[in-house]
Amino acid sequence: MVPLDTFRFRPTLWIVKRGVGIVLAFLALAAYLQAQVESLPAPVVHANSFEILSNSRYSVHSGFTSSLPRQVVSNVLWAMNRVPHLGSYREFYVATPTNVYRYDSAAHALVVHLSGDHRYNSGSSYEVGIACERHEEAGFAIQAGLLAGTAFWSPDSANVATCPMEYATNWANSHWNPAEPIRMVDVIGRGTTTGLTTVIQARSSDSTLPWPRVTGTDTLEVLLAGLQQDSVFSADNLSRDEISQVLWAGYGVTPHLAYNNNRGTTIPSAAAMYYLTQQIFVAADTAVFRYNNRLPPGTGLRTSDHRIELVMSGDRRPQLRAASSRIPSTAPVYIVVCVTDTIRYRDKQEAGYAGLQYLLQAASLGLRGFLTAPITPAEGSAIRTALGIPGALPVIVFACGTPATGFQEAERRFDPSVRLAVSGGRPPMHIQYSLGWSPAGRLVIYDLAGRPVREFGLSPQTSGPHRFDWNGATESGRLIPSGVYVGRLEAAGSTASVRFVLSH
Question: What is the DSSP string of 60-112?
C-alpha cells in the first residue's frame, strides 16, 4: 500500500521540477540570445582631417587579409549610419569569417542574421552592405564608410584597405538573405596602402579657381557627430576659395592613379570610369558654370585640372528655385549633380558619394548645406531648362551658404534661434546657452555613437544668456568616460549643436 503522504507530495515535486525546468530553459534562451548579439566598441576619433582623408582615399581591389580589429567596423558602421536618409528604411549587414550580422544602430551592436562564412572575398575582414530605397543614399553611406576606414591609416603598419564592389553586392543579395535589396557592399580588409598625402593635384589650368587645401582642422568623426542639414541661409555670398574647396571635395582630382591609370578623385567610381565628368554645375549670383576636373576639352580621364567654364550668364537661381519647391530658397550657391543615365545605379551612387562630400566640406568650412534628392523627372526637366544644362539629368541639388541668424515674423522681430557653448575641458563643464525668446526646452548630451548620456530639462526662462555647470556625470551620478561629445539644445522649434571634449 502506498502512503497517502506520497500522493500529497507528488504534485508539489512535479511543480518544483517543472518550475526548475522553465527557469533553466529561460536561462538557456537568454544565453542563446546573448550569444546572438555582439557589442561593438565605441567609435574613436582620429587625428586626421576630413580633407586629408579625401585627398588620400583610394580603392584596393584585392590582396586583403582578414585580421582587422572590431574597432574598424565599429567606426565604419557608425559613420555610415550618420548620413542623411532619403527613404523609409535603411539596414546594414556585415559579413565576417564566422557570421552575417545585422547592425543594431541603437545599441551599436551586431546581431547574428545568418550563421557561417558568407563573404564574397575570402581574404576580407568585413563586408558591409547597405539596404535602402535610393542609390543616392547608398552613395552617402558608402563614402562615409570609405573615409572612416581611411582614417585608420598610419605610416608604421599595413592599413585598412576598402573597395565598394558590384560583384560582392550581387553575391550578398544571393547569399545573405537580406529583407530588402542591398544596394552596395564595401569590402574591407587589411592591406598595403600608399598612406596619407598632402600633395595638391587639383591645380587650375586657367586660374578660374584657386587651389584647394588638402588639410583642415575638423576630423571626419567630429564632422559626422554634428552633421545636420540646414535649408535657411543668410544673404552673404561665398568666396571663390569656399566655392573652390567645396567643388574639390565633391569631385576634385587627387594624387593617386586608378588601376587603369586614370587619375583618381576624392570619391570612388565603378571601374574608374568617373561618370560625373563634366556633369557638375554651379549656379551663383552672376552665372551658371560647369565644373571641370580634367584638362580641356574636359574628358581626358588621365589628366588633372580644377576649373569652371561658363554655361549661361546672369543670375539663374530664381529659375532654379522655381523648378522645385523642395530646393531651399535662400542659398547663395547651388551645385547641381547630373548623370547621363538615370537607369544605371552606379551613376546615382557616384552622385551620392559627391553629395556627402559637399555636405561634410561645407560643415568643415563653417558653412551649412542641404541636399535635395531624389529629383523627379519633372523637376529634372525644369532644372535643365532653368540652368541651360546640355544633355544632363539632374539627380542632386546641393544648396550651400552661411547659416541664417534670424528672420522677421508678423509684426515683431525676434531671433528664434538658440545658441550653445560648452567650455572647461575638465569638470565642472560650463554650459552657456542663449534663447531668442522664452521657451521651455531641453539640452541632451550625446556620445559619438549618437547615444544620450545626460539630459537637462529647461523650464521657461527670460530671453538672453543663461549658464550652469555640469560635473560630467550621468543623472545617476556615474562619470561618463573622457572623449568627444555633442551637446544639442532644442527650444521653440530651433536647435543648436556643439562638439566638445570632456577630460577627467
Answer: --S--BS---HHHHHHHHHHHHTSPP-SS-EEEEEE-SSEEEEEETTTTEEEE
Q: Residues spanned by CATH 2.60.40.4070 within the chain?
A: 407-502
Please state, in angstroms and rounded to a whole number, the distance separating the CA atoms of residues 260 and 266. 17
C-alpha cell at 48: 586626421
**Mean pLDDT of the region 138-160:** 91
Give the CATH H-level superfamily of domain 50-191. NADH Oxidase (3.40.109.10)
Q: What percent of the chain has pLDDT over 70?
A: 86
8 Å CB contact between 202 and 55: no
425: left (phi over 0), alpha (psi -120 to 50) or beta: left
Q: Mean pLDDT across the stretch 255-280?
A: 96
Asked if the 407-502 domain carries CATH number 3.60.90.10, the reply is no
Q: If phi over 0 gives left and psi between -120 and 50 gives alpha, with beta otherwise, what is residue 398?
A: beta
Q: What is the pLDDT of residue 412?
A: 28
Question: What share of the chain in percent tops pLDDT 90?
Answer: 64
| Residue 7 in this model has a pLDDT that exceeds 50 | no
Predicted TM-score (pTM) of the model is 0.77
Tell me the CA distances in angstroms from 297 to 112, 309, 317, one per residue in order.
Answer: 52, 11, 27
Q: Can you give the pLDDT at residue 33?
A: 47
Residues of the chain with CATH 3.40.109.10: 50-191, 220-401
**E runs forming strands in 324-376:** 333-339, 368-372
Assign domain 220-401 to its CATH architecture.
3-Layer(aba) Sandwich (3.40)
Roughly how many angstroms between the first and final C-alpha of the chain, as a whole number?
Answer: 76
Look at the block and give the residue holding cell 572575398.
121
Q: State how far the Cα of 493 lies from the Cα of 485, in Å rounded to an integer.
A: 22
| pLDDT tens per residue, range 340-398 | 987 788 999 999 999 999 999 999 998 999 999 999 999 999 999 999 998 889 999 99
Is pLDDT at 181 greater than 50 in this prediction? yes
Residue the block writes with cell 588633372: 304
Residue (of 203, 160, 196) closest to 72 by Cα position: 160
Distance CA 57, CA 151 (A): 9
Query: And the C-alpha cell for 96?
Result: 565576417
What pLDDT, on a 0 to 100 scale, did the predictor assign at position 438? 54
- Cβ of 180: how many Cβ atoms within 10 Å? 14
Backbone angles phi, psi at 74, to 5 degrees: -60, -50
